[in-house]
Write the structure tokens for this entry.
Amino acid sequence: MTKIRNFSIIAHIDHGKSTLSDRLMEITGFKKKNDSIEQSLDSMQVERDHGITVKAHHVRIPFKWKDEDIIFNLIDTPGHVDFSYEVSRSLAACEGAILLVDATQGVEAQTISHLNEARKNNLPIIPVLNKIDLPAADIELSGSEIVELLNCNENDIILVSAKDGTGVDELVDVIIKKLPSPKINADIPLRAMIFDSNYNSYRGAIPFVRVFDGSVKKGNKIIFYSTGDIHEVTEVGIFVPEMQPIKELRSGDVGYIICSIKNLEEIHIGDTIHLKDDKVEPFKGYKEVKPMVFSGFYPSYSEDYEKLKDSMAKLKLNDAAFSYITENSQALGFGFRCGFLGLLHMKIIQERLENEFDVSIVATMPNVIYKIVDIKGRETIIDNPALLPDLSRGIKILEPFLKLEIFTPPEYIGYIMKLSQDRRGVQKNITYIANKRVLMEYYIPMSEVIFDYFDKLKTLSKGYASMDYQLLEYKESDLVRLDILVNGIRVDALSSIVHRDKSFFFGSKMARKLKETIHRQLFEIRIQASIGSKVISKTVVKALRKNVLSKCYGGDITRKRKLLEKQKKGKKRMKSVGKVEIPQDAFLAALSIDDEK
Amino acid sequence: MNGIYIHIPFCKSKCNYCNFASDNYNSYDEYFSSLEYEIRNKHRFFNIPDTIYIGGGTPSCIDEKFILNTIEIISETYDISSLKEFTIELNPESITKDKINHYLDYGINRFSMGVQSFNDDVLKFLGRAHNSQTAIRAVSMILHQSRNLSIDIIWGIPGYFINLEKLSNMPIQHISAYILSIEEGTAFFKQGIKEKRGLEEEYKYVLSELRNNGFNQYEISNFSKPGYESIHNTLYWDRNNKYIGYGLSASGFDGHKRYNNTREMDLYFKDPLLSETEILSEKQIAIEDIMLKMRCVKGIDKSIYGIIDKDLLEMMISDNLIEFSNGNLKATNRGFLVLNEIILKLSDSYIENLGI
Ligand SMILES: Nc1nc2c(ncn2[C@@H]2O[C@H](COP(=O)(O)OP(=O)(O)OP(=O)(O)O)[C@@H](O)[C@H]2O)c(=O)[nH]1
Ligand code: SF4
Ligand SMILES: [Mg+2]
């Protein structure tokens, strides 16, 4: 009998999950060793560009091991906190997890958060120390951290080098020995859960499923539980990791189902699929993810609006954590207010829209969600700073606060305290874990963390500190709306919400940044930062002094016209407010504002 | 009006700011036989030219027999009996009395000389093959034989402020004063030399100095004594005129289509008739029309500016970029310095309001 093992590899970012996946595919003889392509499961262009995994990748690995037929359904998961949703969904489709720890780094923040997710699913965990080939690997220290974390024995930990393959065959033995086979309920009615999906221009929306009960094959009529829609299956298949058709998906399998779904809205992640004439109990589905960061996405060229809309609908199939609704800006025209799990997520979505759908986007400064509460206690959600009304008396504005946990070697504690204080953080706790690591806990506004806190933390700790956060509550703060006026006209897409104490500093930086990004034009441009009717900072972009080609005779006319047309084209990408052209970068100017004073 | 342009792509050396089709090739025989072939075989859309212009390059730097022979070929193919203006370009270092006389014998009646500057440091910086003394001597040599001389000067040179004192004892008839622009493909561009900033003062000086010496501005960079506007150049700026261009990189326009000859010497040798024809869209016609007219001191008339947004015009007027004069809309001196931006704004509004 073939033994099936469904498992995810989880770890903090960069601890080597994708590299280990390569080795597992090779040692089982499933893939030829190919040195030129590392992290081969990271197949999306954004993943190659950033050198990180952003989607969970499934691969089915059938092989013979010590005379047994084995199938691994391996899921390589992302490590970055913005993609934790991918990890939790992957774990829900598994019977076990490999917890990977980089022996040069030890346990870090997402080691713990992903482990906790695995524990919620009651999964057996195989602890693995990776990168033991590196001289900086501290097997003893990292090992002791794992022992403490998992309450396991030191000799439960498998030592590997995903790079050179050391220890990987032992790991295969342990996976086969320690992880359970999936429960096979082949003879009862089909019940499959949609854990992800994708869009293919020829074949429509394609749900990715884990089959728990029964089986499904071509010709079956299936129903999506939440919508009641009925479809006929035209193909089923598995991931190798590309899609490969097979005859039938059975209980225990992970694969895809094609049934030419044209209406993208029919697919809901977490939904249950069953056969037409059966009645089944639906799965609980996944916990809904709430976007943390919002930004306006507008087409660079306004005529691309429909294309952008269509592309977003298709992309959302492959990223359920991303949300969008239409919005309209005076400065930018028609576009969308989009929700993301974090800033990296936002960047990845923008790049995927540009790479995979070929639409160019202007993104506005990201922000968190605010709430306002009026005198009668009624709450309104504000996901776009421009929509924050001028606060009259009695109206409160609330902002989200996080529980922020920072893992760090003790020598950086001082810097981290300073950074967190500057960011309005309140220290709640500080605990020593093992002997070389400290867990610092802060109560801190999300808006202070979500943008560049992480980068700062990495820099000041030379890469050794890591962090994790959870939304705790909304709480009143002394916040104001900072507006930017260009030649006296408020540019809605440039408004932001900031703490009153920081508003002056932020406003003047913002005005200066804009001055750098907005090029000289025919007319002088006045840039003002204001709160309500009070101008807190102003600056001027002087009028352009020279743009002329002084010679223009027969042979030059075409060339001169082409030059003008080129300049015109450059301007087309700009957004105009009044008679002022604003380059697209300007809308993100605030992101590069540093808090050094 | 009909004009003929003949391009002579030879120069003694390449100036640092130059991106004309020119070089110190020495394939004269091949070039002129290709040119002859082109003149004899290219489709002609008029037969009686009003002007001929031999430009370059430096037509004066080569043995004049090539030029004179080309003029003969032209006179065999066209009826040149009603020519009003016949110009040749010269450089100071390459002219002699004899050359000038030969040119005059063959009907040339206007000379245009690349003087560029009266400052030797500037001339060196520009990579010119002559110094100021040579230039001044060349000017007086021509003035002895002809009453129709134009000179080119360049201003806006980084690190310098132009000096035009020498002009007052030069009874020339025409000046083309160009701002140095650093264009792609030039030596300056490669060296990373940046255009000069803050040109207003220098421009003011140029304008007043030229005015004081009796020159009237009729285009952004062209100035003349009364009655000496270049007919040939003016013809390019009005789409009602036709012109035929011969030689490397030359262009022609038949009232609708423009052709541009190749800029590659070996392609030209292979096929002297090789050219690209452009059929302009309505939009492109609008841009060109506004571009060419706004460069002229006359400006654009009501049929064009009537279609442009009023508030845009008002903003530009109040910023002293454009003004009304004799019922036309024209660029002010300040406006001339940012003319591209003005043209883009005007043509955008024009195109949008016409819905083309
Ligand atoms: N020396 C050494 N380097 C390793 C080893 N495993 C991974 N690496 C390197 O560590 C870096 C990160 O490896 P990845 O496999 O991309 O890490 P990951 O955990 O998949 O990262 P994310 O998907 O972004 O969370 C790469 O540069 C790998 O080459 C190892 O065993 N030894
Ligand atoms: S002389 Fe005129 S054409 Fe020749 S290189 Fe100098 S600028 Fe160019
Ligand atoms: Mg990875």
Notes: Residues 156 and 301 of chain B are 31 Å apart (CA to CA). The two ends of chain B are 29 Å apart (CA to CA).
